[in-house]
Each structure stands twice: as C-alpha cells, then as structure tokens.
C-alpha cells in the first residue's frame, strides 16, 4: 500500500520517490516500510527500474527515509542538470 509519493523534477529529469507499507513483518513483529526511487517515466514504481532507498520498521522511520530520498533525488537531479549546462 503506497503511503506517500513525491515527484522530484528539474532540468536534469524527473524521478518518483515512493514509500509504501509492505505486507511482511519483521522479526520484532512490526510491519516493514520501503522507500524506492524510480525514473519519472517508469511504468511501475516498484518495477525493475526502481531502486530501494531504504527498508525500515516504523512509520516514523519511513517518513524520515522518504524525506531523505527526496533530498537525495533533488541533489542528484541538480548535479545532472549542472553537468549538461
């Protein structure tokens, strides 16, 4: 189940950051959360073009991971845009 999706766009391109609650449980009995980064034109944000940024145990950690992934993606796009100038 997708909980949060953010589109990050710059002159260098567009990516999607998605955080979802997985159906699996950790050894501690909590549910796992996963944050992925995928190209903005990828048909499936969980498909082969996506990369896992973080897998965590709590909703709070998932929120932090999502924000970190957005910052990471924005910095990467900015770097890419500078290289093409």
- Sketch the major β-sheet: 4 strands, antiparallel
Helicity, in percent?
Answer: 25-40%
Strand line-up in the sheet with most strands = 1-2-3-4
Approximately how much beta-strand content do the residues carry? Answer: 35-45%
Computed over alpha carbons, the radius of gyration is: 14 Å
Which H/E pattern describes the elements? EEEEH
Low-confidence stretches: 81-85
Instruction: Report how far apart the termini are.
Output: 39 Å
Number of strands: 4
Q: What integer is the average pLDDT?
A: 85
Structural class: alpha+beta
Counting structural domains, the number is 1
Q: Count the DSSP helices.
A: 1
* Backbone shape: elongated
Describe the 3D structure.
It contains one helix and four strands. The chain is α+β, with helices and mostly antiparallel strands and 85 residues long. The chain has one domain. The protein has a four-stranded antiparallel β-sheet with strand order 1-2-3-4, covered by helices on one side. Strand 2 and strand 3 form a beta hairpin. The longest helix has 26 residues. The chain is elongated. The termini are far apart.
